[in-house]
TrEMBL record:
InterPro entries found in the cross-reference section: CPA3_antiporter_subunitC, NUOK/Mnh_C1-like
PANTHER family: ANTIPORTER SUBUNIT MNHC2-RELATED
GO cellular component: plasma membrane
Protein name (database record): Cation:proton antiporter
Subcellular location per the Swiss-Prot or TrEMBL entry: Cell membrane
Key words of the record: Cell membrane, Membrane, Transmembrane, Transmembrane helix
Transmembrane segments: 6-23, 30-50, 80-104
Major localization class: membrane
Lineage, uppermost ranks: Archaea, Candidatus Iainarchaeota, Candidatus Iainarchaeia, Candidatus Iainarchaeales, Candidatus Iainarchaeaceae
Membrane topology category: Multi-pass membrane protein
UniProt keyword NAD, yes or no: no
């Protein structure tokens, strides 16, 4: 049970993010829900690449045999995907918040139902 605690945290973060997206109308809360959802996905990607007693995927002049090093190395792909996802989610959050500011200036409210009445 304790070995899978990170997967439980992933499920809770994703469930909280989806709940926020479905049931909240405030644009700031929707942006926060998307950020929480992205955090859950990032934690999932990192959890996939975890290996007990693993070493960093950096080749050094260590005194360990090459086959033993390869067996203990963690996968670098989930780490790279997570870094990319963090940058993308930061940009998306900034864009959503800037849209929320513009919608607030136009409508005087952060309610998502009122923003649907805006026309170009």
């Amino acid at each position: 049970m304790i070995e899978n605690i990170h997967f439980i945290a992933v499920a809770l973060l994703i469930a909280l993010g989806i709940y926020t997206l479905i049931f909240k109308r405030n644009l700031i809360k929707i942006a926060m829900g998307i950020s929480i959802l992205a955090s859950g996905i990032n934690l999932f990607l990192i959890s996939l690449g975890y290996r007990a007693q693993g070493i960093a995927p950096i080749f050094t002049n260590a005194a360990i045999a090459a086959s033993e090093v390869q067996a203990k190395m963690v996968l670098p792909a989930p780490q790279a995907l997570t870094l990319t996802s963090i940058v993308i989610s930061l940009a998306v959050t900034a864009l959503m918040l800037s849209f929320a500011i513009i919608i607030y200036q136009k409508t005087g409210s952060l309610d998502a139902t009122k923003s649907r009445r805006l026309k170009g």
